[in-house]
Description:
The protein has 9 helices and 2 strands, in the order ααββααααααα. The protein is mainly α.
Amino acid sequence: xxxxxxxxxxxxxxxxxxxxxxxxxxxxxxxxxxxxxxxxxxxxxxxxxxxxxxxxxxxxxxxxxxxxxxxxxxxxxxxxxxxxxxxxxxxxxxxxxxxxxxxxxxxxxxxxxxxxxxxxxxxxxxxxxxxxxxxxxxxxxxxxxxxxxxxxxxxxxxxxxxxxxxxxxxxxxxxxxxxxxxxxxxxxxxxxxxxxxxxxxxx
Length: 203
């Protein structure tokens, strides 16, 4: 009985992963969340702590890797626009190489969104009773993946320019931003994901 229910849930998720009436409206809601979180970051010194990974992970949880990648790409494009407008360390990166700045803003976020769907699909195999754990692992992993991929891209692409001070920047971000984002994402994200799942299942 449990296996049949799990197969049914997988089929429902595959259906929701396709574009249609049951997907467009919730995805629009998640895109709005991405925009709001981008527009309203939590400022801490020269860095902005963001919770954008929450709607990105929610999209991947509810609708699969492709939707997670789309939301991650929107996140990345929004981050690039903010960098171009002078937020955080954006002006420094833009002055060195705008094309590489676009890459480090967009590609890591798109990858994080896609990988979130992969992680949740793997965790979902643990069964319905482990669903909250699957949410938490996926949400936390998305925040961590974003930070690792983003910072790794900066180190790779801008290493020559930032060799003298890149590691102190890494340390400050890991010690403050990443820890806060992971904790906040785990707490806020699980509640939001569960609520959004109920909405998706009742439509």
